[in-house]
């Protein structure tokens, strides 16, 4: 039964990420190598383990000292956004396939999905100990909430960072641009977490949902902006003008 428990947890954790992956990949008209997508996904998943350690230290030091809720949600958000960027950057920054503006968003989203999958795994595996009708219902409801909530949040926040990563590479000011992107992503991440904590009643979940839907619109617009840059001949590998 323990092996079945593990299988159910892994499959359940992957389902939201797989669905969103097939939703966003078509935004790239020139598909990326499956090998590189897999490595980026794995890097995002692997980086989540470092995030757990850093967030634990953060909560035991600064948060424990100042006892500030806003510091908590902002701090946890910025840690996740920074490490998700590190995962994508570490994997594709020097790869020749990372050459089109849209690639920045695609690889950041894939890294975010790897990260979110590990989160989903922890949440689902801790939600049941035996298989029964009741636990199946819990798993399904958890998956739905993670699909339209936390998993989508990670995608959108990382998509924003990916947009500014691409813009920074085109303008040859990656550090400044990515820093700005992480600030915006942290804001989105923090606002969503705040709304979830304030409106926990099922009837009030419409507020964080509206916030995410709005963010989806802006991220899709960012995709279109980068596609327009590609049509103009912009590349991530072009040399700066003298």
From TrEMBL:
One GO MF term attached to the UniProt entry: peptidase activity
Domain of life: Bacteria
Keywords: Cell membrane, Hydrolase, Membrane, Protease, Transmembrane, Transmembrane helix
Transmembrane segments: 6-25, 37-58, 70-92, 104-131, 143-166, 173-192, 204-223
Keyword Protease tagged: yes
UniProt xrefs under InterPro entries: Peptidase_PrsW_arch/bac (IPR023596), PrsW (IPR026898)
Subcellular location: Cell membrane
Primary location: membrane
GO cellular component: plasma membrane
GO BP term (any one): proteolysis
Membrane-related topology note: Multi-pass membrane protein
Family note: Belongs to the protease PrsW family.
PANTHER family: PROTEASE PRSW (PTHR36844)
Protein name: Protease PrsW
Source organism phylogeny: Bacteria, Candidatus Joergenseniibacteriota
